[in-house]
Design brief:
Blueprint: E1 11-18, E2 25-32, H1 40-53, E3 63-69, H2 71-82, H3 87-91, E4 117-119, E5 141-145, E6 148-149, H4 156-162, E7 172-175, H5 182-187, E8 191-205, E9 210-223, E10 226-230, E11 233-238, H6 240-243, E12 247-250, E13 254-257, E14 264-267, E15 270-281
Parallel strand pairs: 3-8, 7-14
Antiparallel strand pairs: 1-2, 3-15, 4-5, 4-7, 5-6, 8-9, 9-10, 9-11, 11-15, 12-15, 13-14
C-alpha cells in the first residue's frame, strides 16, 4: 500500500464587530500561511470602523447596480460556480457548461476575456494538499484562459467511460486581476454599491448557476468615487457566469478562505456592472 504524507500550516482570522444599537455591523478577515503574518489589531480596527460606518443604513430601491465586490463578497459566488466544472455534469446536460445537443463547452468563450482562473497546489501564497479526497494527485492547471474554458474535472469513472485522463478535484483557485485595491476601485466609481460580504448563498438554477443570497456586514452607496452613506442589505439573484461577463475592472487578488466551500482562493476585488439586487433585507 502506498502512503503519502504532506505538512503545511494555515492561519485564518475572522472578526465581526457590531454597534451597541445593533444597526451597524463590520467584518474583516485574512488568511495566510503563517500566524505571524496576521495583524489582529489592524483587522479589529477595520471591522470596528466598518461597523461604525454602517450604522443606521438608508433603504434604497433594489435593481441593477454597478457594484464593487470585496474579494470575500465574490468568493462564495465563484466557488459555487466551480462545482459545475465537473465533466460528467456537463456531458450529461446538468450544468452551465453543457452544450446544446450534447457534449460540453470545453474550449468555448464563456466569460469576459479578462477572466483567467487556474489551480496550483504548490502556489506559494495559497498552497494545499497535493492530492484530492479520492487520493488522486493534483496538478498545476489552467481552468479558464482569456475567458475560455480549457479544463474540466474528470473522475476516474467518467474518464474511463469517456476515454479521457482522470483529473483531480482542485484544492485552490487562483484568479488573476490587476493591481488596484478595493479603495482604488471605489475611487474610480461614479455611482454604485460597495459590498463587503455575501452569505447564505443558495443555488436556484444549476444550468445557469443562478444564485441567491444576501449582503451583510457593511453595504454602502458610492457616489463620485466616495462612500456616501450605508444602505440596507439586499437579497441578490445573480449568476457568477453573467457577473464575469459584466466586468468593469479587476483589482489585486488577495487570499480568501471561502465560507461556502473548502477552496482556498486568491480572488481580486471586482467592479461589475448590472449586478441584480431583488429585494431589501433587515439583516445587518
Amino acid at each position: 500500500m502506498a502512503v503519502a504524507v504532506d505538512r503545511f500550516t494555515a492561519a485564518d482570522y475572522n472578526l465581526t464587530a457590531r454597534t451597541p444599537d445593533g444597526s451597524g455591523s463590520g467584518w474583516s478577515s485574512r488568511s495566510f500561511n503563517e500566524l505571524r503574518m496576521i495583524d489582529p489589531a489592524k483587522l479589529a480596527a477595520s471591522a470596528i470602523e466598518k461597523a461604525a460606518m454602517s450604522k443606521n443604513p438608508t433603504a434604497i430601491e433594489p435593481g441593477k447596480y454597478t457594484v464593487v465586490l470585496e474579494p470575500a463578497a465574490s468568493a462564495g459566488l465563484i466557488s459555487f460556480m466551480m462545482f459545475s466544472f465537473d465533466a460528467r455534469e456537463a456531458d450529461e446536460g446538468r450544468s452551465f457548461l453543457s452544450k446544446k445537443g450534447g457534449g460540453n463547452k470545453l474550449g468555448e468563450q464563456v466569460y469576459d476575456r479578462r477572466v483567467n482562473i487556474s489551480a496550483d497546489p504548490w502556489d506559494p501564497e495559497a498552497p494545499v494538499f497535493p492530492w484530492d479526497g479520492e487520493g488522486m494527485p493534483r496538478e498545476k492547471m489552467q481552468i479558464v484562459k482569456d475567458g475560455k474554458v480549457v479544463s474540466l474535472q474528470y473522475s476516474r469513472y467518467w474518464a474511463q467511460k469517456q476515454g479521457k485522463r482522470p483529473v483531480a478535484d482542485i484544492g485552490n483557485l487562483l484568479m488573476a486581476g490587476g493591481d488596484k485595491s478595493t479603495a482604488q476601485l471605489v475611487a474610480g466609481t461614479q455611482k454604485g454599491i460597495l459590498v463587503t460580504r455575501t452569505w447564505y448563498i443558495r443555488m436556484v438554477d444549476p444550468q445557469t448557476v443562478l444564485l441567491t443570497g444576501l449582503t451583510r456586514d457593511g453595504t454602502f452607496y458610492i457616489e463620485n468615487g466616495q462612500i456616501k452613506h450605508p444602505v440596507k442589505n439586499f437579497r441578490f439573484n445573480e449568476s457568477p457566469v453573467i457577473m464575469l461577463n459584466n466586468i468593469e475592472e479587476l483589482g489585486k487578488p488577495v487570499r480568501v478562505q471561502g465560507d461556502e466551500s473548502n477552496l482556498l482562493m486568491m480572488i481580486p476585488p471586482m467592479k461589475l456592472r448590472d449586478f441584480t439586487f431583488t429585494s431589501l433585507s433587515d439583516a445587518v
